[in-house]
Amino acid sequence: MDVAVDLARFRPQGSPQIYPVVLSGGAGTRLWPLSRAFFPKQFHALASERTLFQDTVARTRADGGFAAPIIVCNEDHRFMIDEQLRQLAIEPSCILLEPAARNTAPAIAVAALWLAANDPGAVMLVQPSDHAIAATEALHVAVAHGLAAAESGRLVTFGVRPTRPETGFGYIQLGAPLNGSNHILSIDRFVEKPDAERAAQFVESGAFCWNSGIFLFGARCLLDELKLLHPTLFELCVKAVESGTRDKDWLRLDARVFDDMPDLSIDHAVMEHTDKGAVVPIDMAWSDVGSWQALHEISAPDESGNVIHGDVIVDGVRNSYIRADGALVAAVGVDEIVIVATGDAILVANAADATQVPRIVERLRELKRPEFAHHTTVYRPWGYYRAVDAGERFQVKRLMVKPGAKLSLQKHFHRAEHWVVVSGTALVQRGDQRMLLRENESIYIPSGTQHRLENPGKLPLHIIEVQSGAYLGEDDIVRIADTYGRS
Fold first, then answer.
1. Are residues 276 and 306 in the same domain?
2. Whole-angstrom Cα distance, residue 239 to residue 215?
3. Tell me: the pLDDT tens digits for 345-359?
4. Each residue of 405-418: pLDDT tens digit?
5. What is the spatial distance between Cα 363 and Cα 26, in angstroms, rounded to a whole number?
6. Do both 307 and 404 map to the same domain?
7. How many domains does the chain fold into?
8. For 384-435, how does the pLDDT look when each residue is reduced to its tens digit (9 = 90+)?
9. Which of 301, 323, 357, 447 is 20 to 30 Å apart from 258, CA to CA?
10. With contact defined as beta carbons under 8 Å apart, do 346 and 340 qualify?
């Protein structure tokens, strides 16, 4: 349940609006095989009934004193972002589409540029979209404590009070109080992920916090400091925004400029070098959900210490995380293990080695295996398709088309298609023909024929599609017209 603090009670009259900036990047490697490049972890429901992205956006709703959010995301994820915002009934201020991942400094800078152009006095609250925070109220109170400093030109970050030695997080060494307040402190230094001995020393000293990656600063203040400390990055971000193209609620950043953009975090580009940094320590249940073991730790285990999702049967299993998204998973007599099964891949790992999963993903990438990036289910703005079977010169898919949605008017040069309606009603355009198909009816689409599939009904449309031909790749599509701007 979301608990909101009315920030208006904490800030003086006339203070600028706080704009949530949600960073939705990610390579989809650490929670593979559930999370993948084209469907990373923030779009999965892992810590609640909502996805991590939805939880992040919901923490800073307008009824808590915030403006509509700005989203910075990979262009490949734009339709998932649209759908997940629609489910929350939240209209964004803007969605900035990155043509390539370039870390947090460019992502935050382009959001600040858009904000400064639309509201020069804006204060931005930057949050990663893939973290889990159980104490929304604690975050809101911390934002209220940091607001005056951000308005005065400080670049504020938030440090989570550590509860254990942790080698997977960066640390912030706390400095002296600022303006006589114990709520906001100067920053002595940032420390990269330490070894176990140093992490234990940090926690014991009480002088360090985990680096949460959450920031609060004026858009103009951040840009001024970036221009001073990293002028090349600043100029490239200006060009990427100015040369970007508008499309509905999206601002598509210039891809040619992004080719030259350095890969830099905001810590390396600005926070480690500025003399304007400040930190607000927070006591809150926080996790970057950086491994399967981390997800196990923030979940509610059963009496044997197991966290189980899906169709799973266990006997003599303890302290394990087991997830089945598809076929039955059975486990006997194992302890402290991670098993994750999806429609096309199974991960088995010792819990202590769960942080090494990205090495497997890198192997898959080197081998050019599709499993590193794609699921068997692929989401599109009109719905999704799921791979069912494939062989030489054929493949079978199941399509779900949302009510009122339609695919692009398209044609294929190398494949023919045969559609069978399983449930719902399909409006099909084939060449100059338009026809209505109902359950158990079918149609054949020869290669080279213009065609379109639409769901005119109020229920989801489910289709079995059989493709046959010499080449069956997804790039054999010529879009003639498209509702979603892809033609």
1. no
2. 24
3. 999 999 999 999 999
4. 999 999 999 999 99
5. 18
6. no
7. 3
8. 999 999 999 999 999 999 999 999 999 999 999 999 999 999 999 999 999 9
9. 357
10. yes
